[in-house]
Design a protein that fits this description.
two-stranded parallel ribbon; alpha+beta; 4 strands; single chain; 12% strand
Length: 191
Amino acid sequence: TVQKPSVLGGTVKECIVSNLEERETLTQAQSDHFVCRLIAAYNLKDVMTGGLDAQVKDLSMRDRRLTYMLAAIAASPKVVFFDEPTTDLTEDDANYVLDLVAKISCQRSVMVVLHNQKQAQRVGDGHVMLLAGGKIQEHVNLQEFFLSPLSEAGKEFVRTGSCAAPSHDTDPEYLDPEFIDKYKPVVSELP
């Protein structure tokens, strides 16, 4: 997860190699080489200016996010999950992060949670899943979703940028009657 990373200690290099199984056996030179290659492969050399020995906690929010994203992919997982990687970033900084997401998605499956519609349209590879109320409300083509969403939750999200759907285990007696009318298909599935 990238939204609120909990590991702020250590250097950029230590953070990036932290997920490697062989990290304990790497020499300093091998570790430096690995991290430099990874940064260069994603064209981040000019962006991440603090250097490999910079303390992660001292980096800008953008560079911290980029560092954590590189750490997430360092061990070459088949799928990587980024939870709100652009939260609290300026638009310019968010663009750097989204560029990295796009580059990573060319090499492996990426699942990204975003609440910003413009950003979701920019990085989506053609599919959108709307999760609300603990269930997938829609899983459709990106263009279709933003042009004509099928579910009430999807329509509300496209219209307002947010949506509310009851959790699958919500007791209907606690729901507002207007809410029940609006989400009849979802509410009818509640216990």
